[in-house]
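Final report, Chapter 2: Outcomes

The project's central promise was a pipeline that accepts a single protein chain and returns its three-dimensional structure in a standardized token representation, suitable for archiving and comparison. That pipeline is now operational. To close this chapter, we reproduce one record exactly as it appears in the project archive, with the input sequence first and the structure output second.
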Amino acid sequence: MRTIKLIATSAFIAVLMSGCGGTAAILSTPVENIDTSPLKVSELTEAEKHNWGHLDLVKDTIPGMSVDKAYAEVIKNKKGKKVIVAVIDSGIDIDHEDLDDVIWTNKGEIPNNGKDDDNNGYVDDVHGWNFLGDGYNEQLEFVRILASGDTSNPDYANAKAEYDTEYQKWLGRKTQYEQIFQQIKTADETLTKHFGKKDYTKKEVSAIKTEDETLAQAQQIANYMFSNGMDSMADAVKQIESSLESINDRLNYNLNKELKGRVTGDNPDDMSTKYYGNGNVKPVKKTESHGTHVAGIIAAERNNGKGANGVANNVEIMSVRTVPNGDEYDKDVALAIRYAVDNGAKVINGSFGKSYSTHSDWVRDAIAYAGQKDVVFVHAAGNDSKDVDTEPNFPDDNINGKEVSNTYIRVGALAPKYGSSMVAGFSNYGKQNVDVFAPGASVYSTTPENEYDTKGGTSMAAPAVAGIAALIRSYYPSLSAAQVKQIIMDSGLAINTKVIVGGNSEDIRHFADLSKSAKMANAYNALIMAAKMAN
């Protein structure tokens, strides 16, 4: 499940809900005993915003992974081998202009003939497999536990408590956002009437001098939206509408105890049925964009003059549609991992996760299987601002602290500003159970129908690392999956600074205490280390 990110912060809500009294500028609380002077003092340019994860900390003063430097100085004219990277996610727009030439094709399958030509159990799996069938909206795992009515389930009491809290929280958010939406819409109408046009500018709004209370309030709301990155009030209206849609999805689907979302005809609690779903790996609708965004981070065609560059060249993306709008089923994930491994993937990206797992052993066994078959599995750490050493996040690779795989990598997220705020506020962390950090906040990549967008999450950090793994496996194919993992962890940049953890300015820790490697992933260093190890 991908955490819903809403446009309005609590401070923003407070300003609007109070009728916009007082100043609209929300100032951060100063933090003592911490390096608050990032090297990059100017705002990122548009080019830097679209590519910051590929930049170099020393050269560009941005905490990227030195990908561009790696291509310029290490890869150069070297010829690598093709590497299949499986993206276990929502559907992928395999026809996207920046992805269409990097999509895996199953050469053993004749398209659309209704036969299992390669005898792997999956009919017409030409570019991967779709374990969701035509489904998309699903419950969260704790809602499924509660809806089952099985009070003997050890998670039942916690599931009920969480449901009661979450449902009330999202009902409250719905009310807040509806009021915010109305205020922004009213402000936009007021300003449109004042200027006699809809396309008024920030400068024009700032220049308003008025005694009219309604117009003054509209000006204050608009100035606040502009100061928080909105280019126009029309954009603000669109963003709030999008947030309301997400809130309604959470209430109507994810938290709906009566929802019957499973459409594939199989029993998700019975592993004996494995061949369900279909070969259509594309999104069922345009808003199903997560998998396309993740695929672009790994492998969007480089330097083709189009929207984004992937980390890795020489990649074929295998689409395994498994992650719905809601929590993924453990059965689907376990089978997706095994499908990817059995069909030639050397790297698997899993940008999903949840706090409850009914059949965690099935997924853990699949992760162990990937490790045994020399496949790197890269997993997002999660977006709950939590320590995953003490609070569960699935899938994981350990039982009571003992790891079942030495090829599983869990990734936390960095923000594009070196210094105290370089760890994304939403990112999970853990000295034992998060392996490395990588660019994850405000990442620009592909979205369906030849479009591009900026998204943030550990979902974006994991494919950055999967891209490094693919580069190593392409240019140094003699190295094992376990060696690839060790290289990624050992070759990262060790940062000697204190950072804000979990977005809480009162929680200050050394960056080194947030992951096992104590480092930021770095493609340039990884390839140099890989070359030495391979020789």
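Archive annotation: The chain is about 35% helix and 10% strand.
This record, like all others produced under the grant, will remain available to the consortium after the project formally closes.
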